[in-house]
Amino acid sequence: MLPLHRLAAQQQPSRGPVATAGFFLRNLWSSRLATRVFILLGASVFLVLIFSPPVSDFRPSFSWLDDDRFDSSKHFPPPKSSDSFPPPLDAKTVALWASRAGLVKQSFLHAWDGYDKYAFGYDELQPLSNTSTTNFNGWGVTIVDSLSTMKLMGLDDAYKRAMVHVKGLKFKGHVRWFLSQCI
Question: pLDDT by residue (tens digit) across 28-80?
């Protein structure tokens, strides 16, 4: 005769429909099957939407379509001005802007002279210690960055000296560094 706990383990009572659902979920339903079912359902819905006949009297109704502000027949062109645009400047305004341009040019020349004296050919100038740094691969990024500013300000001597440096740049080893840093 079997002990009571073994006898209970051998005889499992039927759980009815819950047991069959559990059997189905455990044994028949897999992630691969679920994926296929969802793909088939999605494809069938897509095909029904694409190949179903269009509803002929469908027109979306938006309240802003009926608004008069969007009626192009009620708009007028902007008024034409007889004055020239931009308005002519008086001598005082021209002198003010010329003095401001001179101050900007002085500021650039102060910064450029410091770079030229202490760090020409290097990437950046450390202004407090008057030393140079090479953080952008050592090809003189400040020189390249300043070329357009020098040209616009009419600093031809500084531009020519900077172009001599730019003509001598070689980027052969820098591409390898760039790829190693970015990839």
Answer: 556 777 788 888 888 888 888 777 776 666 565 666 656 666 666 666 676 67
CB 121 within 8 A of CB 140: yes
Is 5 a domain residue?
A: no
Question: Would residue 123 count as lying in a domain?
Answer: yes
Cis peptide leading into 127, omega within 30 of 0? no
- Of 130, 132, 142, which is closest to residue 166 (Cα–Cα)? 142
Rounded CA separation 148/82 (Å): 37
User: Domain limits at 172?
Assistant: 106-182
Structural domain total, the chain: 1
| CA atoms 142, 147, 150, 153: torsion sign | negative
Asked whether residue 67 is domain-assigned, the answer is no
